[in-house]
Amino acid sequence: MIGANTVSSPQVVNGSLQTKDLSGKARKALKGNRGPRGLAGAAGAAGAKGATGAQGIQGVKGDPGATTVTVVQGPTVTIAAAGKDFASASCPAGSVATGGGGVNVNTSGVHLLQSFANTGASPTAWTVSYENTSGASVDVHARVVCASP
User: Fold this and answer.
1) Within 1-149, where are the H helices?
2) Does 38 fall in a domain?
3) 143 in a domain, yes or no?
4) Residues 41-65: tens digit of each pLDDT
5) What are the tens digits of pLDDT across the range 97-146?
6) CA–CA separation, 73 vs 107, rounded Å?
7) Is residue 62 part of a domain?
8) Which residues are within 8 A (CB) of 123 and not within 5 positions of it... i.e. 6 or more apart?
9) What radius of gyration do the chain's Cα atoms show?
10) Which of 141, 138, 146 is nearest to 102 (CA)?
11) DSSP classification of residue 23
12) How many domains does the chain have?
């Protein structure tokens, strides 16, 4: 038996009922199929800058730097007229070469051709090559700048 102000299924015409006509319990029970996924939204604004991080731990102490610098002049090399030769200077034990060059005292016609450290990770000598176009024998030297802890 159906109570007053009620409608049974045979009396409902398609589209004649609206959700407002349904009880709260009936409205909660309604569920349709899931719809398609929506489009992605626009990117949001950049956030505020974060707080500065904590200071890192102190690093390992480095090796001591050079505290002693010396300049060493190598032995005299005599170059004959129209000749070429090499002169070298070596650092004391425990030192490394940091630079160098050659010495020719007031003799024109003597040309320094090359100036270089000996090879290796820690060079210990400096070599220069000369050409003598002066017409007479000349004396030349190499010098090396050495550093040690």
Assistant:
1) 24-29
2) no
3) yes
4) 999 999 999 999 999 999 999 887 7
5) 999 999 887 678 999 999 999 987 889 999 999 999 998 999 999 999 99
6) 18
7) no
8) 96, 97, 117
9) 47
10) 141
11) -
12) 1
